[in-house]
## 1
Amino acid sequence: MSRAEIVESADAAVAGIEDGSTVLVGGFGLAGMPFDLIEALIRQGAKDLTIVSNNAGNGDVGLAALLAAGRVRKVLCSFPRQADSWVFDGLYREGKIELEVVPQGNLAERMRAAGAGIGAFYCPTAVGTPLAEGKEVREIDGRTYLLEYPIKGDYALIGAHVADAMGNLVYRKTARNFGPVMATAATTTIVQVDEVVEPGKLDPEAIVTPSIYVDRVVPVKTRHYTVQGAR
Amino acid sequence: MTTTSSGQAHAGAPRSADHRLSMDELAAVIARDIPAGAFVNLGIGQPTKIADHLPADSGVVLHTENGMLNMGPKAEGDAVDPDLTNAGKVPVTELPGAAYFHHADSFAMMRGGHLDVCVLGAYQVAVNGDLANWHTGKPDAIPAVGGAMDLAIGAKDVYVMMTLFTRSGEPKLVPRCTYPLTGVGCVSRVYTDCGVFDVGPDGVRIRQTFGIGAHELAERLGISGDSPGRM
């Protein structure tokens, strides 16, 4: 089935995620983080996961809760250490989790490449730094580049604002962040949205993620996150 | 609040102030040097203050790497929206003419040379423009790079804003960085509480001094009196 399926619960949305899967998780800090899908994934029980996300969890919720439940073998992210990343910090210091630090733009572009069928690409970021170690170096037209490989997901869990019943997506403000890129880079893309509307209700000119990238959509009624000072 | 220059020196000539600048005063100095209409990324931490000193009619468009152009000031009260934050995850506002985009586009704007100026904090800058601002190199430190490496090589001009000396009095403008590098030869100017410097392939040059004479400053930094460009 290639057409997106609208499912009734976050649990139905994450059904079938296998042990050992690579899961791309959207969000930048809390904005765009698909909390309901992550909580459902914890209930679902898949383990030995590789998680690709910008951060490695905040506080004790969302990704941090998945990590605390011992389900994650490895994290690829740009910025694991934050003021409230104590769950990740503890696991890392105890040697219970692997970390690959990826510069934020490379994280995005490597997933973009995966979604666009690009085998690898040369990128100037991190040349001459410790993160260049082991990477092929090439000079092109007087500038030095590193060879970067795609990051492909078995699953992507992302948050969007509104979907139509076809699976077309629009996002809200900076909660868009990694969502559109991750949607292209996973075999199965699972989306939580605030609302699902009839096809035709979204302006076709304004669609950010076309339905071809989307597999399962679940509408969730509540927002599970706030920021300091909100509400 | 008046800040730095003791007179209307012609462009490029060293100017001075009679006191070491506060970070707010330094932010005002940098704001004055940002060309009108520029597309600018302000790094997390001290550089964020620069936005408060940009004249209302500057036409400067602020970029935040989590996917927005024409970012407005920090959000307060009812304006706080969890879906609208800056790169430091602080709630912000949008200005008329704002645009949202996903992470791969956001970093393509940097890498592709579309961003005019980026201002970053730093642990160390070398006289040749090498930047170290992501990792202390301490064995127990959890590495976290975020967008620093992409920004360092991305903008047309990369400025650093920092104190010139560590708390224990060690210069942070150095012949060669001892901390792990963020980027090679990427910084063109260094704004500090004690003075402003141009750095690059030709070495360092003092542009302005604050609360210290150019000769004494050169001495404290170990810049040779005969050829002030070299260290």
Note: Chain A touches chain B through 55 residues (CB under 8 Å).
## 2
Amino acid sequence: MRVTFTVNGRPQEADDVWEGESLLYVLRERLGLPGSKNACEQGECGSCTVRLDGVPVCACLVAAGQVEGREVVTVEGLADHAEQRSGEAPARGTSLDGARRRQANGTGARTGEGTGLSPVQQAFIDAGAVQCGFCTPGLLVAADEMLERNPDPTDADIREALSGNLCRCTGYEKIMDAVRLAAARQSEGV
Amino acid sequence: MDFLRPASWDEALAAKAEHPTAVPIAGGTDVMVEINFDHRRPEYLLDLNRIGDLYEWEVGADTVRLGASVPYTRIMEHLRAELPGLALASHTVASPQIRNRGGVGGNLGTASPAGDAHPALLAAGAEVEAESVRGTRLIPIDDFYTGVKRNALAADELIRAVRIKKADGPQQFSKVGTRNAMVIAVCAFGLALHPETRTVRTGIGSAAPTPVRARTAEDFLNAALDEGGFWDNGKAVTPSVAKRFADLCAAACNPIDDVRGTASYRRHAVGVMARRTLTWTWESYRGARRTTEGAA
Amino acid sequence: MPNGAPTKITQGTPTKGGIGESTLRPDGILKVTGEFAYASDMWHEDMLWGQILRSTVAHAEIVSIDTSEALAIPGVHAVLTYDDLPADVKHYGLEIQDTPVLAHGKVRHHGEPVAVIAADHPETARRAAAKIKVDYRELPVITDEASATAPDALLVHENRTDSHIGHVAHPNIVHRQPIVRGDVTEAAKKADVVVAGDYTFGMQDQAFLGPESGLAVPEEDGGVHLYVATQWLHSDLRQIAPVLGLPEDKVRMTLSGVGGAFGGREDLSMQIHACLLALRTGRPVKIVYNRFESFFGHVHRHPARLHYEHGATKDGKLTHVKCRIVLDGGAYASASPAVVGNAASLGIGPYAVDDVEIEAVALYTNNPPCGAMRGFGAVQACFAYEAQMDKVADRLGMDRVEFRQLNAMEQGTVMPTGQRVDSPAPVAELLRRVKAMPMPPERQWESSEGADVRQLPGGLSNTTHGEGVVRGVGYAVGIKNVGFSEGFDDYSTAKVRMEVVGGRPVATVHTAMAEVGQGGVTVHAQIARTELGVAQVTIHPADTQVGSAGSTSASRQTYVTGGAVKNACELVRERVLELGRRRFGTYHPAWATAELLLEGGKVVTDGGEVLADLVDVLEGEAVEVEAEWRHRPTEPFDLRTGQGNGHVQYSFAAHRAVVEVDTELGLVKVVELACAQDVGKALNPLSVVGQIQGGTTQGLGIAVMEEIIVDPRTAKVRNPSFTDYLIPTILDTPTIPVDVLELADDHAPYGLRGVGEAPTLSSTPAVLAAIRDATGLELNRTPVRPEHLTGTA
């Protein structure tokens, strides 16, 4: 079957999709967007978390056919998503300013020097919340969405919001640090 | 495999009538696991995501008509007052991502004894609104679960909604798992006080082939509360009554040993949860009474 | 080149970014943007999908295999069984080559590969697998020591020819290592108290999040290029090439992104299967396990049964320790022999005891194969000896921590193996530090709005609002070896290049080190900055175009490959200074007389005087050195007495666990898990703490939830999924304050000490001790389940 939907603001079309395929498979294997990860394929680890019409879901448990006509945001689109959000917020300057900022910072992604990242992405790097990084994309999408809803979370709030995202490397402490850092920077308008 | 995408409820019913083996998929949180792990290859998948009606709820005078696909997250956020037991149960479902997708219709359709909604529905009192091209019928929740992962739906029926009694008193829900989040129930317990009818209802999950009520325990407690005038005098439930109630709840279980827990533990844990949820709800009832009296 | 093939990562930093600083990961941005290519992300035009058919029974003769129906399915390009293997070599293994690439005549464990399929879509491949008919004649299963060593026991492996068969009492014993020191019988007479106990340790899974995956691309020269997630490229290569019938130079390997490892990628998984299918079909073949298959796709931590006897005088000195450790190695040897060596040599823990009798064995059974996992044989023993230490202290009426400190080993202590510990061993100090850390507040779950269930046992499941909740505190300390032991030639290779790029001096570090998440790439770049004084360091992708870097295990990569990078940098520096002397030596006498350093892109004297800019020194030339580096040699343990200088370095961590237990429901909330660890020298403090917290959490997992459950009647795995094999979530994991001690080991580069494993040892017994403290129960098995806390097992 054919599935047509929007990913990170761009229309996408996938053909010859097997009816049992998940959104995760379509993103990873058909659309060249492997950022969402395939750690358990049973909704237990959160590594494939994406926003489906704004709502965080496990892409492995969404049948490909179910996303027809809908909007998906993946980790690959997180920076743009966050930037649009901050652009829309009246206190945070115009989206043009945002675009300028991004341009000014925009060195290549492989240099290790930062640029065009959302606050939560930058915080994960700065806080040492990334080790193997396989859980990272899902955690970022989930954490970003939580900070959108709850800009000033308590530790218990953070833990609850991220309780569907398994990490095997970090023991979660640096992830807690990262989300606290992102929240603090966000509230300072940095 | 064929993927059916009805745009409306009527189309969905027609599709199910035409293809009775079609497996409905809404949140996908059960069905997709089975497909991903090659446990199931249905001939047809019947996607219910496009049917907006299933995501809505109506709060009536006595009941809430809860659309089959209303996600657990919405129940937690919006129906805490009307359906406190189900809201608590919803909060224990898996993870935020799953709660954003899954709904009560899926729990009922799968009818796993471990489904988190079941004890809350049993305790609150509910009817399943099943519909087919032949018409609509209301299946009392007590008659809905017919065996391990089996329910009373006919092959051509879909779940449209659940009609759940609005809470007329405190409700509680507890679930034991071997992890502090994102865990399938080893066993679960729901309890609702119904001051209007002066009755108590229960629901037990994952401790018998189907979700069950602890009827003997309910009868005992109803009689004990009645005899002691507890509903009127607002006294604390005596420890001996609570213990007897807990023992009878444990006795209502018919559990198995499996990788998640032993039968013996399940019985024990149901007893503990029964006693605790009775205490919590009863204390809440007493507190509300005192507040009312104080105001009067 | 396929999509997702790794490219160079260049990191420049305005700061110095050398060792001792918490520089950030060079792959961090790629990882947070989703661009970092893990093995499962690889994609190639025209690629096929590989699928493995695995045995549905644990022990059986294969009567027949019929693949004809599978081959007939459109879209299926190959179906291979044992009979299709192209070379004479048809087995592989880390030390003992006992593992068939595909089952031959017999399967020895549940989930053993029987056939492999290549098809144009994963679903086609799955349907084909389902059409392969395998006729099994089931055999009785061997599941424990009694069934393995019974006189009439079936042999898991007949006709063993490995080096251990000569010294084991039964062919179903992989390896046995006794250690005898002093005279236990005589010493026991001095004991005022003797405490004996039996302990059981469950089977733990590494549960790395990135499933086993890789892409094999056939090459024009008849060879194959494998992109794969592994822990040791060259060890894989050594095992893969002979089975393919190819010389090693025709099997090129490149490390793709690795989503965690923890020992589970030391053995081969899909490597050979993907290469076989690629060579057979002439098409690239990708294999990605799902989580179900992953539970069968790698070895696990050995479950163990342990018997301990400790004696002590009434003033608190240990008189003797006797122990017997039985590890279940499962159907294939994997790393079992080395795990036995570790379990034995570290069996009494970080304590000074003169009279010791230890025996460790690993069994062959029909249970899932077990091998390397973080902590490697030292974990099981630590759980048992630390439980014993508490019991002895209690019997003596002594404080548990003081009793440990009284018996703690220190620098100069002689181990049961006769090895004198020749670097700091601050066991008592670590205990003192962890005990001195402030305690978490009581009843922290109470808030103005009542109990916050998220902070109580049961968490979101709303099982208690404080009822039945009792707090307990427990302590433990452990000892782990660093690096490969027992005479293994443990070396790493590094190639370092220095040149001018874009007007700036740049160093490129090329090793075959598997970056599995631990941060080796970060540290190697720091070493290069420190040694070569350049800001910008490029980390070349790890591949087999450079010599072996050894395994990313045994806490060894910072030490050994880090040592190799340091060594190669020093050689590069010599050559650069040589160039400088040639070009500029006549202009300044210091070129000949002073100690010269490379700093901030310049050649400077140790007095800080700048002699030349590296850009000018290099002047278009590139300096490149590839060199091996080894740590001090070790010796094998004597097979009869266990004596020998078997280890190169030891590392130590201590934990204090604070738990709250719902004593009625048997549910546990770990409130805090404090750790003190000596790391010698923290090359990257942020990463060090991250390693300690991660290791601590894996220890927590085995304490309260993690266990692969194998049915003792069928030897089949009952919970191969993340639904029923539970690892800690963020709500199960407490705050983990860490106190890092840095006492240099003068024998190691920069004085560093391997970090990654020690915290996995002591966190488990600390949590268990805390639960015992809360409940008063004996709890001789781990993980402890609600049943064990409520008498309903």
Note: The radius of gyration of chain A is 16 Å.
